[in-house]
Amino acid sequence: CSHVFEKKHWRPQSLHGPSPVTKFGPKACMLQNPHTVMHIQDPASQRLTWNKQPKSVLVIKKIRDASLLQPFKELCVFLTEMKDLIVYVEKKVLEDPAILDDENFGTITKKFCTFRDDLDDISNRIDFIICLGGDGTLLYASSLFQESVPPVMAFHLGSLGFLTPFKFDTYQSQVTQIIDGNAAIVLRSRLKVRVLKESFRDKLGNLCVFQVLNEVVVDRGPSSYLSNVDLFLDGHLITTVQGDGVIVSTPTGSTAYAVAAGASMIHPNVPAIMITPICPHSLSFRPIVVPAGVELKIMLSRDARNTAWVSFDGRKRQEICHGDSITITTSCFPVPSICFRDPVNDWFESLAQCLHWNVRKKQNHISSEDEEF
After folding, report:
1. Entry pTM
2. How far apart are CA 74 and CA 263, in angstroms?
């Protein structure tokens, strides 16, 4: 793998750059922790560079979306013929009859490398990723990499484009700029989620691990009873969630399900985990933000009347029974998302365009003549 996010280059370091000042006055200092994984860095200093020229690219396309066929074909021709890149495409994308029946495009598809989700490991073969579609394409791209994630360039060609800052009109110049290594990036933290099933505690394969970009959702499922789950923080019981459920989200996920449930919106550069109850039984249970370095654990309460259900970025939904546990920490493997301008401007542009943040009708100006009356 030729990009700078290769595990051996960046994993031993913190996810957000050098440590801040840890000395306070002439005598006081902060006790150093060798296991620290999160520090704060100026977003403007996060720039993409390459150790070697990129040679391979993974193109993620929404399956069987007719509106994406022409952009997909144009992009693939450009990448293979003009940029001489090895293009990786998911096998089921090429099974679309609209692609299979295109004889002219067939000469290009023969040059592709294909893979199958959950079966083929492409983690060490991809230099960077291009997503065509909405936010779901970036979430899907993240799910393909359980460790180091290549840089992701996301084009807005779907119904929602909060995470997809690029427009396809000028894709050739934009892709060329990325290949040349001239772009800002934002490191979108992920959650490492471990699900331990009590029924398989003494058997092989008892632990399921997921890398989550948006959120982990624990809810009551089809039951008519309120969910009752205990929430532990670093081994201490902090509260019991009684209601429809709870959302544990990254800053990236704060603008997804969490904001619809009443949470605040957090910039992706902020090292934090957000805990948001879903329709809690207590009116005083408000969303909270905790440091990114903590460990959260969720279990069914002893007196819970029913089981719970958990999903990871809306996928892999499964039932949680008594004795099962869900452990959540900040992952060491963020998603390096390539910016159109920079991390700050892109985020506020997304708030305005996608969520219509603070859009309102302005008051008319009052002139000096109006004030006389």
Report:
1. 0.87
2. 40
